[in-house]
Design brief:
With 806 residues, the protein is of the alpha+beta class. The strands form 13 sheets. A 7-stranded mixed β-sheet has the order 30-33-34-40-39-38-37, sandwiched between helices. A 5-stranded antiparallel β-sheet has the order 6-5-4-7-12. It has a 5-stranded mixed β-sheet with strand order 15-18-21-22-23. Strand 5 and strand 6 form a beta hairpin. Helix 6 packs across helix 7 (252-264) and helix 19 crosses helix 20. The radius of gyration is 40 Å and the shape is elongated. The N and C termini lie far apart (85 Å).
């Protein structure tokens, strides 16, 4: 984020445009305005007031009853608890109805210890302009009563916050933003040259860039000593400017560096010269070295980090933050001003490792202008002399800030080819020239040299972007893609469609989506058929997240147990995600899995007096799995259910869903007690998992239209059959045998009863089915129905050995 104020911008840009116009143009040229904070509106109710009288509160020792003159000649009674409230002082008055930002409340008339208070005298903390909450704001005697406080204190300058893209290091300074606006025709850039300050003596502190045989992390380093400075509070204009963008004024020397950081995008650092021992060395840190930084934290360093050290050791974390030992204070009289260049990638890596965010890091990791290294030091020198006095030394420079110019061949027609925006050459030349680019040539292709502050511009596409954004993104016409003559292909792939349909089916069955880690512990991976060496992570984020998951079930079980541990035992969760059976692309599958725990039945979760179906069981998981497969496009008539499943399921309370033994779609059932123990979970808990890639593709049709709906006008007929079979015969075998009697007329078969016991021989069982017959051409006669029933009995008898129950 980059913050600046409207008035600050106008110091670099000569313009008469309004704030709203400038904010809109900033967004149009790629500097997106995140928000505008106008304290003149926020502080509109607050006025300068004088305390006419302050007397003790009759019912409270620490309170005072003040009569306050707000400029209209009618004193207002205010109860105040500030220790500095007294007769004759001037402060800031807030009337009833004013919003107090520091207390997040809207003021109203009230009584305090039986004395009415019709307003408030506020502190700086309550206005959120500083941390001072010891007393109310005290203003000078010449403060004009009745004048809006925001206008009197200079707080009426709107603050603009810009969300920068990472490539725009040049826009981390107000001057760079003004340059872009000037190029876009908003005004004229004020680009006065920075005058050199002549040194009065040689700089006594030498700087050495010492990186040995390793790559240098500091291309150049400039240093200057200032003797006889007088540090103290910075002037009001500078304090207001920093406060307006959320920075806390510290002292003049530090405030100057903060100002130049935001004004020019050039971070600087100042050292108390009295605390620097000997000369400075810029080098890699030694592993284990520590630094107590200006933020009060101690950081442990390693040899990937760049530091500035004196003879006593590390005194600054290069490009990120200085050390507390050499920080400037009110007693500082000699100061070293540093302006350096650092390797952006190293600054970013160091800041990320240490978790340090600073204004300097924000700019250096994006890239600062190398040509402004010494001019930035000269600007800081002049400000120090103006505000603190002092005598400057010569500038000492180690290394070189020179960078070779990048010359880019730029075809003029490239802008229209890439953006569709036809920009005349004269206009394109004006834009690039106003942004600091140098152009040579007049033909269809010119040579363009990028300025030193635009390290992100590397090729002709970058130049097209510059021309396009300054011309106006809003000028680029919306043109649809040519779709061609061929019919359009589906946007979503089959697996994407199945994923969405599976999630809808889960939600319809009262399950809640969970997103779990793609990694699990090696122990759990091995439990669910994984744990192969090729699926172990080389650099796991935690010891229990070491292997790619072979199943979604462990993550869902862990999530359900966490809910149970926190008082929510009845969990119904699902997930659709990737599982891994090997390290090849074909070993990665999209699984749809779900778990139900305790009383999380499909009919409703938890206990209720109308519910009589008890705890979850394997059939709940089976119903979930079949519903998901049906939603994903599997014909129910093709599905087969076989008893048993993988080892993590209970052997007698689980099943396998397949389309023939060669295409296993998934499994369902109650988790094995050993699996629950290994997962550190408690039951009852049922689960299922199906693989969406194993669902066969539907047969392609010549047309995308749906087939004609066939509805028979004849009444369907239902007949019930009860067969006595051996105990090991499966109900599905009976259903398939009955269906084979006439696949055209028989449109539905359901199993509605299973019986063993009295009247049935030992080792046998009775299975009852309901068969629906749907005539197509004419109503069936009794004889035809009886003939079909006989064929059903014959087929069941032939295939399963079943006989009609007597």
């Amino acid at each position: 984020m980059m913050k600046l104020t409207f008035g600050w911008l106008k110091e670099h840009l000569d313009t008469a445009r309004s704030l709203d116009e400038i904010a809109h143009k900033l967004t149009m040229i790629g500097l997106e305005v995140e928000r505008i904070e106008d304290k003149a509106k926020l502080f509109a109710p607050f006025v300068v007031a004088r305390v006419v009288e302050a007397k003790p509160h009759p019912n409270a020792d620490r309170l005072r009853v003040c009569m306050v003159d707000t400029g209209d000649g009618k004193p207002i009674q205010v109860v105040c608890g500030a220790p500095n409230a007294r007769t004759g002082m001037k402060g800031v008055f807030a009337p009833p109805g004013a919003f107090i930002p520091g207390k997040n409340l809207t003021l109203s008339i009230g009584k305090i210890r039986d004395v009415e208070s019709a307003g408030m005298l506020v502190s700086a903390f309550e206005l959120q302009i500083s941390d001072d909450h010891e007393g109310i704001i005290e203003l000078p005697d010449d403060a004009p009563v009745g004048v809006p406080y925001a206008k009197y204190a200079g707080l009426d300058d709107p603050m603009i916050e810009i969300n920068l893209t990472p490539n725009r290091g040049d826009a981390t300074g107000v001057h760079g933003i003004a340059r872009d606006l000037a190029a876009a025709g908003i005004g004229k850039l004020k680009d006065a040259p920075i005058k050199t300050v002549k040194g009065q003596f040689p700089c006594p502190v030498k700087v050495t860039l010492d990186f040995g045989a390793t790559p240098s992390l500091c291309p150049a380093f400039a240093l200057r000593l200032m003797r006889g400075v007088k540090n103290g509070p910075s002037p009001d204009w500078l304090q207001r400017r920093l406060t307006a963008i959320g920075l806390r004024p510290i002292n003049a020397l530090v405030d100057i560096t903060n100002f130049i950081t935001y004004d020019r995008g050039r971070p600087l650092h100042v050292f108390d010269a009295a605390e620097v021992r000997g000369n400075l060395t810029v080098r890699r840190a030694r592993t284990g070295e520590t630094l107590l930084a200006l933020d009060g934290k101690t950081y442990t360093l390693d040899d990937t980090m760049c530091v500035i050290a004196d003879d006593d050791g590390v005194e600054s974390l290069a490009g990120i933050m200085g050390g507390e030992k050499t920080g400037c204070s009110e007693t500082t009289s000699d100061v070293l001003i540093e302006s350096a260049l650092w390797v952006p990638m190293n600054i970013a890596q160091t800041g990320r490792k240490l978790g340090v965010n600073s204004d300097a890091r924000y700019r250096f990791e994006r890239g600062v202008d190398p040509a402004f290294m010494v001019p930035g030091l000269e600007l800081a020198t002049r400000m120090v002399m103006d505000l603190c006095g002092g005598t400057p030394s010569d500038v000492m420079v180690a290394g070189s800030a020179a960078t070779p110019g990048r010359v880019i061949d730029f075809p003029i027609a490239e802008t229209e080819r890439l953006t569709g925006l036809a920009v005349p050459f004269v206009e394109a030349r004006r834009i690039l020239d106003s942004l600091g680019f140098k152009i040579a040539g007049q033909g269809a292709q010119v040579k363009v040299t990028a300025p030193s502050w635009r390290g992100d511009v590397q090729d002709k596409a970058d130049l097209v972007e510059e021309v396009m954004r300054i011309s106006g993104v809003d000028r680029v016409a919306s043109v649809p893609f040519d779709r061609g003559e061929a019919p359009r292909k589906p946007v979503l792939t089959p697996i994407q469609l199945r994923t969405r349909k599976a999630k809808r089916a889960f939600a319809a069955r009262n399950l809640v989506e969970a997103v779990t880690w793609s990694f699990i512990s090696k122990k759990h991976a091995e439990l669910f058929g994984g744990g192969k060496p090729e699926l172990a992570l080389a650099n796991p984020i935690a010891a229990d997240l070491s292997d790619m998951r072979p199943s979604l079930i462990p993550g869902l079980v862990a999530a359900a147990q966490k809910n149970a541990d926190r008082g929510f035992p009845d969990a119904a969760l699902f997930e659709v995600g990737q599982i891994f059976r090997g390290d090849r692309p074909e070993d990665q599958f999209t699984a749809a899995a779900g778990i139900r725990r305790a009383l999380a039945k499909p009919s409703g979760i938890g206990r209720h007096w109308t519910k009589r179906d008890g705890e979850v069981d394997a059939f709940d998981a089976k119903a979930d799995a079949l519903a998901v497969l049906a939603a994903a496009g599997v014909p129910s008539s093709a599905l087969q259910t076989a008893p048993g499943g993988p080892a993590w399921f209970h052997p007698g309370r689980s099943g396998t869903i397949q389309i023939g033994p060669q295409n296993v779609l998934g499994h369902f059932g109650e988790l094995h007690p050993r699996a629950l123990e290994a997962l550190d979970a408690e039951g009852p808990l049922v689960a299922f998992e199906v693989i969406l890639e194993r669902i066969p593709e539907p047969r392609t049709r010549g047309t995308r239209a749906k087939p004609v709906l066939e509805l028979s006008p004849f009444q369907p007929v239902q007949r019930d059959f009860a067969f006595v079979v051996d105990r090991q015969v499966k109900a599905a075998d009976i259903v398939r045998a009955a269906q084979s009697a006439d696949r055209k007329l028989i449109t539905g078969i359901t199993v509605f009863d299973v019986y063993e016991g009295q009247g049935i021989a030992p080792g046998r069982k009775s299975i009852a089915i309901a068969v629906t017959l749907q005539p197509r051409e004419q109503t069936m006669t009794d004889a035809e129905i009886e003939a079909l029933a006989a064929r059903i009995v014959a087929e069941v008898g032939k295939r399963t050995g079943g006989v009609l129950r007597g």
